[in-house]
Amino acid sequence: QVQLVESGGGVVQPGRSLRLSCATSGFTFTSYGLHWVRQAPGKGLEWLTLISFDGSQKYYADSVKGRFTISRDNSKKTVYLQMNSLRPEDTAVYYCAKDQETVVIRGLIDYWGQGTLVTVSS
Amino acid sequence: DIQMTQSPSSLSASVGDRVTITCRASQGINSCLVWYQQKPGRAPKLLLYGASILEGGVPSRFSGSGSGTDYTLTIGGLQPEDFATYYCQQYYTTPRQLTFGGGTKVEIK
Question: Does pLDDT of B109 surpass 90?
Fold first, then answer.
């Protein structure tokens, strides 16, 4: 079955960096785009970024553009989120998620990881 | 950018009730709309896409409709396991932007 498992969350001071990882299994990793979505405590969902199946296309929400970088390692079936210059308002559960469509990015998420909590605080 | 507005933000209902949640886009999204269900401490779950297409394994009491800017999620006969928060999301502006609605919490009356 499809599985996405995030790791790398924790407590970090404002201005510092953190890298999240998302290990996947149960689907043909090299055929699908992948997303990161976050949810601040008690708040709604916020889409952050996506990467195409081959890593050639990357898109970002304005709120993280220039600070966050998505990447993928197809040999490890893992997607990453490098987060720099972290702010208290970046505190959230971060989910990685799989796009429904093969090759073409549809923007429709059919599987989610369980999430990893990032807390930005001094 | 497209904004998604859900209403109501919360509602109380009883088991067996018919529940309707509305999602309005700030511009037409050509039925490029998804509905997710999220329970506390859990990841969201895909319910419907294309505004009205039921994801496999989702009970048929869930249905979606709408066009243009206005969409609805209907739960026909609320079950105890349906108490959760529901989110809409547009994918019309894929891949440049994906936008979620603010969520609707369905609580037990």
Answer: no
Q: Do A107 and B43 touch (CB under 8 A)?
A: no
Rounded to whole angstroms, the Cα distance separating B88 from B46 reads: 10
Q: What is the pLDDT of residues B44-73, one digit of tens each?
A: 999 999 999 999 999 999 999 999 999 999
Q: Residue A111: which pLDDT band, with cuts at 50, 70 and 90?
A: very high
CB contact at 8 A, B90 and B102: no
Q: In three state form, how does the secondary structure of chain B look?
A: CCCEEEECCEEEECCCCEEEEEEEECCCCCCCEEEEEECCCCCCEEEEECCCEECCCCCCCEEEEEECCEEEEEEECCCHHHCCEEEEEECCCCCCCCEECCCEEEEEC
Q: Find the residue in B nearest to A57 (Cα).
A: B95
Question: Would you state the pLDDT for residue B95?
Answer: 85
Which of A3, A35, A45 to mutate to test binding with chain B, by most B CBs within 10 Å of its CB?
A45
Model confidence band, residue A103 (pLDDT cutoffs 50, 70, 90): confident
Tell me the pLDDT band of A104, cut-offs 50, 70 and 90.
Answer: confident
Residue B101 near chain A (CB below 8 Å): yes
Q: How close B81 comes to chain A (CA, Å)?
A: 19
* Cβ pair B103:A110 closer than 8 A: no
Tell me the CA end-to-end span of chain B in Å, nearest whole number.
Answer: 36
How many CB pairs below 8 Å do chains A and B form together? 61
The 3-state DSSP class for residue A11 equals strand
